[in-house]
Design a protein that fits this description.
It contains three helices and five strands. The strands form two sheets. A three-stranded antiparallel sheet has the order 4-3-5, with no helix packed on it. By secondary structure, it is of the alpha+beta class. Helix content is 30%, strand content 27%.
Length: 71
């Protein structure tokens, strides 16, 4: 049993399969599109996300809330 937990956010370049294999917990960042509320980044794939950027949309990321981190 480990006395620690390795945690990263979804902006890291760690493949999901490797994170699972290593027991690394990945917390999904939230982002805001054109001022619209935060969305978890699992709601769209990378291709859709980068298409938004290429089309000139303002996309920003946001750290998760403490409540969401704890849950």
């Amino acid at each position: 049993m480990n006395d620690y937990l390795i945690i990263t956010d979804s902006s890291c370049d760690l493949p999901v399969s490797l994170a699972e294999e290593l027991g690394v917990k990945v917390i999904k960042l939230e982002f805001i599109i054109e001022g619209e509320g935060a969305k978890k980044n699992d709601a769209m794939d990378e291709k859709q996300f980068y298409e938004l950027l290429r089309s000139g949309k303002m996309v920003t990321t946001s750290a998760i809330s403490m409540e969401r981190f704890i849950s």
